[in-house]
Amino acid sequence: MKAITGSSDRWPTWRLSSRADRHKAVSKEYLGLFKALKEEHLQFDVIHQNDLARQGEKLKRYRLVIIPSIAQFGAEELAVLRELHAAGIHLLATGRSLTADAANLELLQDVFGAQPLRVDTDVRSAYLSTADKAVFRRFPERDWVILDEAFTHAEFSPACSGMLPFITPSTFGPPERASGHIVTEEFGAAVCRSTSGTAGVYMPWNPGEHYYKYGYADHKHIVLDLIDQVTDAKYVLTAQAPPQAEIMLNRIDDHTCMLHVVNLSGFNGVTYFEPVPLRNIEITVNGSERYQQAEELTGGQAVQITPSGSGVTVRLPELKEFAAIVLRQ
């Protein structure tokens, strides 16, 4: 499976794509990244990997492409990724991405400055350091994040900025019993920028799979902090809303768009219960469009809309099951 994300100059959004014939680990990596972006209310689309070669021009509208542990791309797909990077689109790859053969490894070296050395299939009790608070702002009071499963030891180009120093496995147990860990000069992420400033971010482990399996917000926050770092945190939509509010923004025409807000508080696995009302949700739509009117279609409740920075902020007093808000210029 594969994820692609980004945001365009005209209508910024995020993009993810998937390939169903990949093994379960890749599926978990994709689903974990999907979950992280959705909970943060970052807007994204989904495409199939087989469409990548045909989507090259369309993808140039986006700012970031995420590749969730996809080991192999075909020649046409590799050419599209190179073209996107050359056009100023940032790339972020996780896990075993681009490691299947010489052609994929060549792109990994050229764009991400990374050369895989070996894979540890069990790094339980290893950690990554988030001590660099200039980047990892979601970790104000803690510096170590747990690792599990596989980790690829990689050598990065001197031109790259290494992040998340790897801390070796040692005693596995509660903190008062664990000791002997060593902070190494290896990294759990690196940002390699081209001469034009376009970033290639490589994370030689699976943060999405970690988040999907264990649900620790740390693994989500690492990905979000790195995305903030390379995109300057400029998003089409930001929200003051709990993760249980799923928010989708869709353009209808040049003067109208629609916000769908779904209350997932009653969702538990494959079962749905009566949702708990969510109150005082604020959604800011950024961009050049200056919407003047907001109409909520499902319940008829009044929705406030006010100018905010480069866009507008919509205030929804209460969200029961679902809201559909039409914004008009």
Task: Describe this protein's structure.
With 329 residues, the chain is an alpha+beta fold. The protein has 6 helices and 21 strands. The protein has helices spanning 24-39, 56-59, 75-86, 102-112, 207-214, 217-231; strands spanning 15-18, 45-48, 64-68, 90-94, 114-120, 127-129, 144-146, 151-156, 161-167, 183-193, 199-203, 237-240, 245-253, 256-263, 267-268, 271-272, 278-286, 293-296, 304-308, 311-319, 322-328. A 7-stranded mixed beta sheet has the order 3-4-11-10-9-6-7, sandwiched between helices. The protein has a 4-stranded antiparallel beta sheet with strand order 12-17-20-19, with no helix packed on it.
Compact summary:
The chain has 329 residues and is α+β, with helices and mostly antiparallel strands. It is 20% helix and 36% strand.
Topology:
Elements (H helix, E strand, L loop, with lengths): L14 E4 L5 H16 L5 E4 L7 H4 L4 E5 L6 H12 L3 E5 L7 H11 L1 E7 L6 E3 L14 E3 L4 E6 L4 E7 L15 E11 L5 E5 L3 H8 L2 H15 L5 E4 L4 E9 L2 E8 L3 E2 L2 E2 L5 E9 L6 E4 L7 E5 L2 E9 L2 E7 L1
Tally of DSSP helical segments: 6
Kindly name the structural category: alpha+beta
Distance between the termini: 38 Å
Average pLDDT, all residues: 89
Spatial order of the strands forming the largest sheet: 3-4-11-10-9-6-7
Radius of gyration: 21 Å
Inertia-based shape = globular
Q: Can you tell me the residue ranges where pLDDT is under 50 for at least 5 consecutive residues?
A: 1-22
